[in-house]
Amino acid sequence: MFEKILLATDGSETALKAARAAGELASKTNGSITLLFVMEPFNEMAYISLPGYELGIDPEKVARFQRESANAVLERTAEVLKPFGVPFVTRYEIGTPSATIVSVAENEGFEVIVVGSRGRGPIASFLLGSVCDRVMHRAHCPVLVIK
Fold first, then answer.
1. How many structural domains comprise the chain?
2. pTM recorded for the entire structure
3. pLDDT single digits (tens) 61-102
4. What angle in degrees, to the nearest 10, is found between the helix axes of 59-81 and 13-29?
5. What positions does the domain UspA occupy (predicted)?
6. Which residues span the domain enclosing 56?
């Protein structure tokens, strides 16, 4: 049970707590972990130049920045997993975080998703929602939320 674990991370402190929980779970179940970081796609339309004003956004530089940011988050989280001695792989996707996490979990047969709670107040959570909330409501498998 819970041998195939999907750990979704954003690099936050609660995500690192979730990584420790996933490492502990994997060590007790002889499981393996896929460490997933999902970044929102770059929206060029948000940076349309106004007449007479050129923003000069280079899509290649944006893509490089996204890869470097993803690698930094994945490396930081991987450091938390290493002491547990469990097998893990890292993965970076571009997409809507909640939808991508649920899709990866379902399409690849993960048995549990481990994710950190964002820890927003009740009003902010109600108005904005959270990746964690959307994953919990859409996932086909159990979701372990770490606060």
1. 1
2. 0.87
3. 888 989 999 999 999 999 999 999 999 999 999 999 999 999
4. 50
5. 1-147
6. 9-146
Q: Could you report the per-residue pLDDT of 131-147, keeping only the tens digit for each?
A: 999 999 999 999 999 98
Looking up tokens 């997409």 gives: 95
Instruction: Decide if 115 is inside a domain.
Output: yes
CATH number of the domain that residue 142 is part of: 3.40.50.620
Helix pair 131-138, 97-107: axis angle to 10 deg: 30
Among 14, 6, 72, residue whose Cα is nearest residue 39: 72
Rounded CA-CA distance 33/5 in Å is 5
Do the domain assignments include residue 1? Answer: no
Domain for residue 27, yes or no?
yes
Give the sheet arrangement for strand 88-94, strand by strand: 88-94, 32-39, 4-8, 112-116, 143-146
CA-CA distance, 139 to 147, in Å (whole number)?
19
Q: Is residue 3 part of a domain?
A: no
